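Here we describe the complex-level prediction in full. Unlike the single-chain runs in Section 2.1, the four entities below were treated as one system.
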Amino acid sequence: MSEPSDLRSRKKLATYRALAHAARELTAERGLEAVTVDDIAAAADVSPRTFFNYFSSKEQAIVGVEPAVLEDLAASLLERPREERPIEAVAAVLLERMTTDAETARRWLLRAELVERYPSLLPRHLAAMADIERTLVTTLAQRMGVDADHDLRPMVVVSAVTALQRSTLAWWNRGGRTEPLGDALRSAFAALATELAKP
Amino acid sequence: MSEPSDLRSRKKLATYRALAHAARELTAERGLEAVTVDDIAAAADVSPRTFFNYFSSKEQAIVGVEPAVLEDLAASLLERPREERPIEAVAAVLLERMTTDAETARRWLLRAELVERYPSLLPRHLAAMADIERTLVTTLAQRMGVDADHDLRPMVVVSAVTALQRSTLAWWNRGGRTEPLGDALRSAFAALATELAKP
DNA sequence: CAGACAATTGCAGAGACTGCAAACTTGCGT
DNA sequence: ACGCAAGTTTGCAGTCTCTGCAATTGTCTG
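The structure predicted for the assembly as a whole is:
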C-alpha cells in the first residue's frame, strides 16, 4: 500500500501507470487495432523503447495487473480475521476491492468490457488472473501455516474461488447486471456446495 | 469422433495436424525461441502464409486445442450415464481422456512441460483451457436441460472442475508425480468439499 | 562534487502478422 | 468428361511487435 518516497521509484511507478493508463484509455476510445505501441508511448511521454522496459506487449499493458495490487491483495488476505475460514477469507479479499473502492470497480468493469470486445485480449487477461492466483496461493499457504508444495489445500481453495469469481463476473456482466454482484457470488458458492455434496 | 470422408476436409485436417505437430516437436527439441513460423511451415510442407490461415500465432499452434477434440469432449459428456451428477460427469470426461488414451496423456504432459519451460506460452495455454470450458458449459447446460445464460449452475460446476483439474495437474507435474493423478484429483475434490462446508 | 548505479533512448534488425490478388484444387451439375 | 463455382494455397508488400546493444541522461551516496 505504501508509496515509495524515493524519487527514482516514484518516477518509475508514475511511468508504469502513465503507460497502463494510456493503453487502456486509447484502446477504449479508438479500438484495439487502431492503437500502436508508439501511440501509447507518445501519450505517456516516453520513447517507444521504454514501453518495452515495462511491458512485454501491448495487451499486457492493457490488462496486466500492477505488482502493487498483488502486494495489496496479499496484505489484505493476511489481515483477515484469524477465525475466518480460508475460503471465506479469499473470497472476501477479492469481493472487498470491487465493492469498497469505486475506482477499482470501474476499472474491472472496463477491463471486462475490453476483454469481451477484443478476444485477443483474453490470453493475457487470463495470464493476469493467474498472477493473482499465484500470489493468493502463496499468501494463503503462509496464513494457513502450511507448505503449498506439499499441501494441496491452498491451491484448491484459491483456484476454486478465483474461478467462481471470474466466471460469475463475466456472467453478471453479460447479463443485465440486475442483482448485486455479491448476491450472484453467494449464489454461485451455494450452487457449488450443493453440487459438490455427496448425495 | 468421425473423420470426414470429403477429400477437401481431410486435407485440411491433415494440414492442421501437420502444422500443430511440427510446432510442438520443433519447440520440444530446439526450444521456443529457436523456432520460427517459417520453420514450422517448412516442416509441414506448406507456405508460411498458409500457417496463418490455420493459426493466429506460433503459440496458438503449440498449445491450441483442435476443434475436433472439443466436439469429442462434448460428445463424451452427453454419453455419460443420466444418473451421474453434473460434477462427476464433467470430472469423469476430463480424467477419462488422460487415463484411457496413452497418446492423449503423453500430449498433455508434453504441453504441461512446455508451458512450464516457456512462460510466454501460458497466456495462449489458458485461452485454450477457456475454449474447453466454454464447450463444456454449453454442453452441460444442454445435458441438464437448462439455459446457461440464466442458470449459473453449469458454469459454476464446469469452472470449478476445470480449475481443480488444471491446478492439480500442474501441482502433480511439479511434484514427483508419485501418486496416481486420479488420486490427487480425488484429494483435491475432497479438500474443496471440506473447505466449502459451513462449520 | 564525483563516482556508482538506474532508467531512458535511438538504432538496427529479425520476426510476427495482415490484406490482397493470382494461381491452383476440389466439388458438382450437366 | 467438361466447365463453372467455391474453397485453399501461395507470393508479395508492407506494418507492427519486440529484442539486443551502446550511448546518454538522470538519480543516489558518500
